[in-house]
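Data availability (excerpt). All sequences and predicted token strings are deposited with the supplementary files. A representative entry, beta-N-acetylhexosaminidase, is shown inline so that the format can be inspected without opening the archive.
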Amino acid sequence: MTGFGGLLPRPVSVTPAPGVSTVDTVRHRDDAGLPAEGYRLEITPEAITLSASDAAGRFYGMETLRQLRGPSAFRAAGFASAEVPCGVVADHPRFSWRGCLLDVARNFRTKAEVLRFVDLLAAHKLNVLHFHLTDDQGWRVEIPGFPRLTSVGAWRHESMVGRHDGPERDGRPHGGFYTVDDLREIVAYAAERHITVVPEIDVPGHSQAAIAAYPELGGGEPVEVWTSWGINPRLLDPTESTVDFYRRVFDAVLEIFPSEVIAIGGDEVPGATERHAWFVDRVIEHLEARGRRALGWDEILDGKPATSAIIGSWRGEEAGVLAAAQGHDVVMCPEQHVYLDHRQSDHPDEPIPVGYLRTLADVYAYEPYPAEMPESARPRVLGAQAQVWTEHLDSVRRVDYAAFPRLCAFAEVVWSTGPRDFDEFSARLTESHLPRLDALGVEYRPLAGPHPWQTRPGVPGRPR
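Structure token line:
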């Protein structure tokens, strides 16, 4: 099996052997000595044996076997090869948190599209879907008792096109939301693929959709669901009644999502006061009382939250270093490295070029342990997370283009140990993995640049 690792992440240890196997049945063995989520796949002409210490390891071992059967094994139906090369693969992940954020608040993705995205995460051995469900531009989760959150907050009458400072809008209504049953289905579907869905209800900023539904949450002034992108100065009114409202919201969320971790946002709060930090602390305390842990973006460190709160270090790596030193667990997700909505080249055909220039090679070179982080603090790094914000990704085709193949590179970063060679990775990607994405129907960005139908001529961006 020389050169194995085509699907990515590449395995920890590969021992090739001569010959091929055409065995259809896989023998499963429990092996408590293997690491969590790890597996050992032994292939001989006579037998295929998969050993694992847990169900996740068995799942990942079967995913590796699917890789070995060739690209056709990734089609919904058809003609996968029965032949697989002989040898031994001993494999386990580097990090326990291998995540990807999908923003469905800015541009809604249907339930079927979310389930497809879950399948793509599972195929890359990622295990956390951070589900960004609420923002200024839309509220996407049904909350019993508060029907206006979806009847009003899930819909905006138009959207900004691209990124600019002018009044131009597309005049096209947009919206959608998930029922409680939809979300339970997504959670169960993800769990079958060993993916934890971490919901995010963003407070106290990024809340205009909620305020449009219930103006008292923002002080009483009527507003519409926001049609712009960017940082919104409109904030929740940090009163006891607003805290009570969100306690009920989070209780409803906890009934749907079994995840220990619940994301609460906390980012981009212009003009924040001590009262807003107090509001965030009350939410954290409420989740703790319910046996859960809050995940907040790194701005919440300014309010010195309880150390039970996990910090998503997004504005850079410095906050992750600081949070770990203060006793917080950390998920590394710096915008300078792993924001997949940011532009992939400076070519004029690059659609809606926003943010930093981050190529496939840049993502592959990312190291989740900051150089400034002392060795003693490294155990606080749970892992890392790629971010797919969707202000400028208004269809599943645009999500595919932004996420892939850079998410493939990220998957290898958070799974594999040891040195990384981009040329070697690029060869595996081109020869083995892009055909799998083709079989899966993923409309990824070609390495040479966008197809003509993937461009967006005349739509302004905002490069950094």
